[in-house]
């Protein structure tokens, strides 16, 4: 028997006989061909042909063929949606009245589906909202429409916002097919009706004929199918746009309000929060279809990628906001480190979404949402346990968001039954409540910042008072006059810096040729240092009989101050100078070296041994002496001079000081002081009042 030439032409997927149009055609294939076709269909998940069609022609097979034909008449026919006047008022959800088949291979086209419709195990819809989760399959929908009692235009609406391909196939009485396409890959201007859902008109000559819809998407698939007239479409759009207009308007007001606050308070938490709300709004607009309609109607890229892209960026800002607002870096370091892990994972997901890997990105986004929810819940519970107030507002807001996010993620990952409220309403309502509570949390933070600011101002005022008291004590402790030695010129510079310290100096001159000079630096700052300075001044006054011996002066001061200035201590240098005998003796207790510069230019750095004063019961001070000559110069200083730093964190140091002494040996004392200060300012790059430490030095010039 010759083969029928009317076989469908599919190179990759051989088709089975067209039993719908005539079962006798199946007998024109060879037994081997029929066996291969049946196996092929079975391997593709389609209902296999009855086994008896593979038998040779005989009376028994003919009997089974008659039996099969009678069973075919009982096979479920294409469901017909009734439009009787008492059932249809212009708005009818028909999801339960359709049939759906999942093509896991994704390679069958419409002609094949139509020609083999009776062999395909279409399943009747069991819910008003079908949920297929993440799937790379193609879903075929089949149904018929009864002609409406009135001659009016009707429309089919696929209620979903994330479908890549939606193809409608309408046939008329002459079997001519009308195809209408929509979906993410069809930009708004190219659709039959620009709409946030997928809307097409129904040709009037397609009633009573099979209508097929092909749906495929890389994002989680949840759909409902509505049959509407034009009046109902306008009514639904009007009511929905009121609700969503209010929702997105609230988001806009929240963003502008917090942007204004961020401008004044300069708090980075507000920037993180604004980023979170802004990209959350873009994600919601993409998910609900408004972004494709209003923001980028000509861009299939953003229409398709917007949901995982914007929600991923939103989640990234939320992680930053939670970490900063809850101060995890200071309070819970392990949680703070985990936020870095989350941030890296989210950034990678943003890259996937931007690159068009929507299937992977959308799945990862759902799992990241669940992981982030669990992580924040643990952190919030820890904050509740520690009774930290900022966690209360944050926790209340987060639990609402977490509940809606988890429910929504479960619906996207799984295939549980869903509905319009869960698909469209729960997340916007919960997120609006969540965002509002976060605003309250930030408002509470403003109050906290105000209190912290008031406390800081009080501290500053108190500190200024303390500084003024310290300065007054220091000024009162300093000598009121400089001793007059005819053959000696004395230059003094003392500058307390940001915090008044304990630098002070003192002289004792019993006659016109002897001078004892003490320079000290007290550890610490403020009033305590000033008080210790005053005590040091008193201790020095008890050593006037030992003016000729630096060793006796410093050791005697230690015995008096030990146990009376704890925890502070003093470093000190003492010089005895006799212009009549040309004697110079020097001792130091933990203080910087002294410098003797000869008239010839030679510089002696003198650093005898000696521990600090006030810490040990007894200290041993080494004393070094030199003969002096007219024209020699002696420099005593505190550590504020050599320990001045520049912007590179380099120290001025002793070497630069020696270089300065060498280059300015011939300057008079008053000009020498100005030159040193100028050199220090030039090195540090700061003005004199910006230095971090007190600076004190004394220059003695022998005439």
From TrEMBL:
Q: Does the keyword Transmembrane apply?
A: yes
* Keyword vocabulary terms for this entry: Hydrolase, Membrane, Transmembrane, Transmembrane helix
GO-annotated molecular function: phosphatase activity
The residue ranges crossing the membrane are 59-76, 242-264, 271-295, 307-326, 338-356, 362-384, 391-413, 425-443
User: Where's the PPM-type phosphatase domain?
Assistant: 485-702
Pfam families from the entry?
7TMR-DISM_7TM (PF07695), 7TMR-DISMED2 (PF07696), SpoIIE (PF07228)
Q: Which PANTHER family match?
A: STAGE II SPORULATION PROTEIN E (PTHR43156:SF2), STAGE II SPORULATION PROTEIN E-RELATED (PTHR43156)
Could you identify this protein by its name?
Serine/threonine protein phosphatase
Instruction: Provide the species name.
Output: Leptospira ilyithenensis
């Amino acid at each position: 028997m010759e083969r029928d030439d009317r076989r469908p032409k599919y190179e990759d997927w051989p088709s089975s006989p067209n039993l719908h149009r005539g079962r006798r055609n199946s007998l024109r294939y060879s037994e081997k061909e029929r066996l291969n076709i049946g196996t092929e269909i079975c391997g593709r998940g389609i209902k296999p042909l009855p086994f008896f069609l593979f038998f040779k022609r005989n009376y028994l097979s003919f009997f089974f063929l008659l039996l099969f034909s009678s069973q075919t008449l009982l096979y479920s026919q294409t469901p017909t949606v009734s439009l009787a006047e008492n059932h249809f008022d212009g708005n009818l959800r028909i999801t339960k009245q359709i049939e759906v088949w999942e093509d896991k291979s994704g390679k069958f086209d419409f002609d094949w589906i139509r020609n083999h419709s009776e062999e395909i195990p279409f399943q009747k819809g069991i819910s008003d909202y079908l949920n297929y989760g993440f799937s790379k399959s193609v879903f075929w929908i089949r149904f018929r429409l009864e002609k409406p009692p009135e001659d009016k235009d009707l429309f089919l609406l696929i209620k979903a916002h994330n479908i890549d391909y939606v193809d409608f196939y309408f046939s008329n009485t002459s079997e001519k097919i009308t195809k209408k396409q929509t979906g993410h890959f069809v930009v708004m201007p190219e659709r039959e009706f620009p709409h946030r859902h997928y809307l097409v008109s129904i040709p009037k000559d397609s009633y009573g004929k099979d209508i097929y819809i092909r749906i495929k998407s890389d994002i989680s698939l949840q759909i409902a199918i509505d049959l509407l007239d034009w009046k109902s479409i306008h009514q639904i759009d009007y009511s929905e746009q009121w609700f969503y207009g209010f929702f997105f308007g609230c988001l806009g007001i929240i963003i502008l309000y917090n942007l204004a606050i961020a401008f004044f308070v300069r708090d980075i938490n507000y920037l993180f929060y604004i980023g979170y709300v802004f990209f959350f709004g873009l994600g919601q607009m993409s998910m609900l279809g408004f972004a494709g309609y209003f923001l980028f109607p000509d861009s299939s890229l953003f229409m398709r990628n917007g949901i995982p892209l914007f929600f991923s960026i939103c989640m990234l800002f939320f992680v930053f906001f939670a970490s900063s607002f809850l101060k995890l870096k200071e309070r819970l370091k392990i949680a703070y480190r985990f936020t870095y892990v989350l941030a890296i994972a989210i950034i990678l997901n943003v890259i996937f979404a931007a690159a068009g890997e929507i299937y992977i990105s959308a799945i990862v986004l759902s799992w990241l949402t669940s992981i982030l929810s669990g992580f924040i819940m643990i952190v919030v519970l820890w904050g509740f346990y520690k009774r930290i107030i900022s966690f209360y507002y944050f926790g209340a807001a987060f639990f609402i968001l977490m509940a809606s996010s988890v429910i929504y993620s479960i619906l996207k990952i799984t295939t549980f039954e869903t509905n319009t409220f869960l698909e469209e309403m729960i997340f916007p309502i919960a997120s609006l409540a969540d965002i509002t509570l976060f605003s309250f949390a930030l408002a509470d933070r403003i109050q906290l910042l105000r209190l912290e600011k008031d406390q800081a101002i009080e501290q500053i005022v108190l500190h200024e008072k303390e500084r003024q008291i310290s300065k007054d004590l220091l000024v009162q402790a300093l000598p009121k006059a400089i001793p007059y030695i005819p053959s000696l010129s004395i230059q003094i510079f003392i500058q307390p810096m940001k915090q008044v310290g304990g630098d002070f100096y003192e002289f004792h001159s019993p006659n016109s040729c002897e001078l004892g000079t003490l320079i000290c630096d007290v550890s610490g700052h403020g009033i305590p240092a000033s008080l210790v300075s005053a005590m040091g001044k008193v201790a020095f006054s008890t050593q006037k009989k030992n003016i000729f011996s630096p060793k006796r002066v410093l050791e005697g001061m230690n015995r008096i101050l030990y146990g009376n200035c704890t925890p502070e201590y003093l470093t000190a240098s003492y010089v005895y100078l006799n212009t009549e005998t040309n004697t110079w003796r020097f001792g130091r207790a933990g203080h910087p070296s002294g410098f003797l510069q000869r008239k010839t230019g030679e510089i002696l750095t003198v650093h005898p041994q000696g521990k600090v004063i006030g810490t040990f019961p007894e200290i041993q001070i080494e004393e070094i002496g030199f003969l002096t000559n007219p024209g020699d110069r002696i420099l005593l200083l505190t550590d504020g001079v050599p320990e001045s730093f520049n912007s590179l964190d380099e120290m001025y140091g002793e070497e630069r000081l020696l270089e300065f002494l060498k280059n300015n040996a011939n300057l008079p004392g008053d000009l020498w002081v100005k030159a040193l200060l100028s050199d220090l300012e030039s090195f540090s790059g700061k003005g004199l009042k910006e230095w971090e430490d007190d600076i004190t030095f004394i220059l003695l010039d022998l005439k």
